[in-house]
Design a protein that fits this description.
The protein is built from 5 helices and no strands. It has 139 residues and is mainly alpha-helical.
């Protein structure tokens, strides 16, 4: 009987641990997955903060429970995000996207003023997310 060919572990390890493909996902695929998770996190966080603020103002404990409910989504999607990216990158994306959502919701729901500095701040936050993604692609 002929023995099957034994593959060397070094080329296999090199293929699995390649910076281009980790866990079957390219950096670009991971970026969009994590960005989707972060978007959900930022929205859940905004809803949670709104609920806690409403509950504090009205003295109603129902809003506290609602705030905890929304923050449970934050925990769950953070947990999922760490499967694709590290703590620092996830938190950078979360912080920047939270800034953008806070500005936009303030303008839409609370009639806050949008001026060139607001637009610049939103642009810089989005640029930070993009630049951090470039660092993944470079390696």
């Amino acid at each position: 009987m002929e023995q099957p060919e034994i593959l060397s572990p070094v080329p296999l390890a090199r293929e699995i641990l390649s910076p281009e493909i980790i866990g079957g996902k390219t950096p670009n695929e991971k970026f969009w997955i994590v960005l989707g998770f972060i978007f959900i996190i930022a929205l859940a966080e905004a809803c949670g903060q709104f609920s806690l603020k409403q509950g504090n103002g009205k003295g109603d404990k129902k809003y506290l429970v609602l705030g905890i409910f929304f923050y449970s989504f934050v925990c769950y999607f953070l947990f999922r995000s760490y499967s694709y990216e590290g703590l620092a990158h996830v938190n950078l994306m979360w912080s920047c996207l939270s800034i953008v959502i806070a500005y936009i919701s303030g303008i839409i729901f609370f009639n806050e003023v949008c001026n060139r500095y607001t637009i610049l701040a939103i642009g810089l936050a989005l640029t930070a997310i993009y630049v951090s993604h470039l660092s993944d692609e470079v390696g």
